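Side project, low priority. Logging it here so it doesn't get lost.
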Amino acid sequence: MGTLYYGSLSTPIEIEDRALAHVKAVIVAKLRRDEAFTLSLQHEDGSGRSTVWLSSSIPLRFTFEESERPELNPAWLEQLSESANLLGGITLVPEHATP
């Protein structure tokens, strides 16, 4: 399980390593262009969802349980990138196509 530490959030955001690697790629690409946006995630226990505002001015750190980087799935990256450009921001959707 990977972890996203964002700003001064008291609770880190846990995301499965493979999914976090894909989300990280999209986040880094957008922040390099100095684009602010949101990231929305469903709560693992099914109790709801959370949204965070991502901006290059707020500290961000990714940690991964696995030491090896997974091969990124271009179709999944494209899907996540497209959602990042919509009003609702990045929405973590399941991976359907394999690399």
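Brief comment: The chain has one domain: 2-91.
Revisit when time allows.
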